[in-house]
Design a protein that fits this description.
Blueprint: H1 2-23, E1 24-28, E2 35-42, E3 45-61, E4 64-73, H2 85-96, E5 108-118, E6 123-132, E7 135-148, E8 151-161, E9 183-194
Antiparallel strand pairs: 1-3, 2-3, 2-9, 3-4, 4-5, 5-6, 6-7, 7-8, 8-9
């Protein structure tokens, strides 16, 4: 009897373990269709552009978002508001330099979800670790997930403080009396993740 009970319990635990594993579904993002747009502001103006997503995925459990991560190619950073080719290149090269994102030493940045709070069927309060220049800090923002045709799309707008990632140029967190050289610390990022169809 005890042997039968032990076998039954073992079978149940094995089934429960398998069911728990298979209930979570990892869905890859489509880097080509996904998009990340950045905006940096300075005294009297702003610049904006894009960064290419390299890879990533979201995890769903019983159709609810439960995790995920994505990686960014910092070498792909562009500026789209400056139309003069030489001026555009000068800014992009500066953004890639040690003054800003040190792309030669830190070619990738990433974000990983650490906590989720469901606000509605399509909206979540997301907390996660943002890593830039080898430095990791927590960040919280609201994300929305919906469908368009046969595509699942996750969108969010997040704001990070660049000074926490050792991005020093023109930052009042590191320098005083910057005058019109001031570049604000907050950087806006609009993220659109398009998931690959099954």
């Amino acid at each position: 009897m005890r042997k039968f009970a032990f076998i039954t319990l073992s079978a149940f635990l094995s089934f429960a373990s398998v069911a728990q594993k298979t209930s979570a579904e990892k869905v890859d993002i489509d880097p080509k269709q996904s998009k990340l747009e950045w905006t940096g502001k300075k005294l009297g103006g702003e610049h904006y552009g894009t960064i290419q997503l390299v890879s990533g995925y979201l995890i769903f459990t019983k159709k609810k978002l439960t995790g995920g991560t994505f990686e960014m190619d910092m070498a792909s950073i562009t500026c789209v508001d400056i139309t003069d080719a030489k001026s555009n290149k000068r800014l992009v090269d500066h953004l890639k330099s040690e003054d800003f994102f040190s792309v030669a030493r830190f070619p990738k940045s990433s974000f990983m979800i650490t906590k989720l709070e469901s606000k509605s069927a399509t909206e979540y309060l997301v907390t996660g670790d943002l890593t830039i220049k080898g430095k990791t800090n927590p960040i919280t923002f609201t994300a929305r997930i919906g469908t368009m045709g046969n595509q699942t799309i996750a969108e969010a707008t997040l704001v990070f403080d660049r000074s926490k990632y050792d991005v020093k140029f023109g930052s009042q967190s590191f320098f005083e009396n910057l005058g019109d050289k001031l570049v604000y610390d907050d950087v806006d990022m609009n993220v659109k993740l398009v998931l690959l169809s099954k």
